[in-house]
């Protein structure tokens, strides 16, 4: 697959907070947050959101009244919304004038519908990865945010972690020389039942949208977007990709090999190799607490990292700071990177024969 994308875009480290040692510290006027969905990831992210000095937990929505109320009580939201009288809980939340920004944690296939409703209601949006199911949906949301002068960002939390940004700093410092190859994997044997979102075609299930973005982050961080991608994988009877292997090829000869799986486990590490040395993450690669740096000329060293909260605070701080500063997109997670990633994944799906209902 040849990729017709703009010139390679190397991700940049996020702007440092005024007090980088404390990402929970306020950077401006408080923002009133709404959270859409009450599942595991919403709960984990909200734990960090509750700790931000400049956040107000305003409202949460769920399809279920009991779930919405229990989540609101657990974290201290002022209001809870749920599906009622033909109106979805999330639309009722978006109609609330007390909400400034929403975090969307629904399954992948619902991201476009929910984020579009939020933007049409005048809300800033932080949307979980995978941002959408396909590039068409991503482009529509970006155009809508641009037209309405609203902030929109994909919640790819790894790109904001201190350890990942330190790795990219080392990679682009020249210490490792010219980067020639990247190897990264992430997998686990999922024992969730067939109705779980990971195995549900209607939810956009499968390894590609749920896991591949993490190994891909390391290839993009080290080498940028590739000139071509070759993909192989396995589909089950429900047309869900159980695992996939991608080879990214770059002008000049560099390569990246990426693997993700829902049926097998692996070391969950990333290795970046250059002409003057290599770097390897500790496990797991999407939240490493350790980096091993091995220059060909010099001593190997290990750098370790502390993490604030559950690790989601860094993307929340970036979202908050950008909105406070009147930005519509993050310089760390720009719209072009999100859109080009979805284009890359569309190309992979074409090779695997993988389609979703949202593609219709």
UniProtKB/TrEMBL annotation:
InterPro entries: Gfo/Idh/MocA-like_OxRdtase_N, Gfo/Idh/MocA_domain, GFO_IDH_MocA-like_dom, NAD(P)-bd_dom_sf
Keyword terms: NAD, Oxidoreductase
Pfam families listed in its UniProt record: GFO_IDH_MocA, GFO_IDH_MocA_C3
Domain Gfo/Idh/MocA-like oxidoreductase N-terminal residue range list: 31-153
Domain (GFO/IDH/MocA-like oxidoreductase) ranges: 166-280
Oxidoreductase keyword on record: yes
Region of interest: Disordered: 1-23
Family: Belongs to the Gfo/Idh/MocA family.
Protein name as annotated: Gfo/Idh/MocA family protein
The species this protein was found in: Arthrobacter flavus
